[in-house]
Amino acid sequence: MTREQLDKLSRLLTDTAQTASTIELRALADHGGQIARWAGVVRGNCVACMRLVDGLSEEVGHE
Fold first, then answer.
1. Rounded to whole angstroms, how far apart are CA atoms 3 and 44?
2. How far is the first Cα of the chain from the last one, in angstroms, to the nearest whole number?
3. How many CA atoms lie within 13 A of 16 on its CB side?
4. Which position among 2, 3, 7, 25 has the lowest Cβ density within 10 Å, counted as fewest Cβ atoms?
């Protein structure tokens, strides 16, 4: 992947994680436990993917 593609992917993952966090908080406020759990899973997966993208970005930067 190019640096530009990795940057775009990183921004997309960040936006998705932020949206999932918002959904999670709203669901918790409305006692929507199942929705909150799934939003938390999505957020967690985004964070894990962002870490992978960061590692890939470092590798691309060293080439």
1. 24
2. 12
3. 16
4. 2
Could you identify the residue written with the tokens 């060293």?
62
**Residue type for position 59:** E
The pTM of this model reads 0.82
For residue 63, is pLDDT > 70?
Answer: no
Pairwise CA distance, residues 1 & 49, whole Å: 15
**3-state secondary structure string across the chain:** CCHHHHHHHHHHHHHHHHHHHHHHHHHHHCCCHHHHHHHHHHHHHHHHHHHHHHHHHHHHHHC
The residue assigned the tokens 């894990």 is: 48
CA distances in angstroms from 12 to 7, 17, 27, 42, listed in the order given: 9, 9, 22, 13
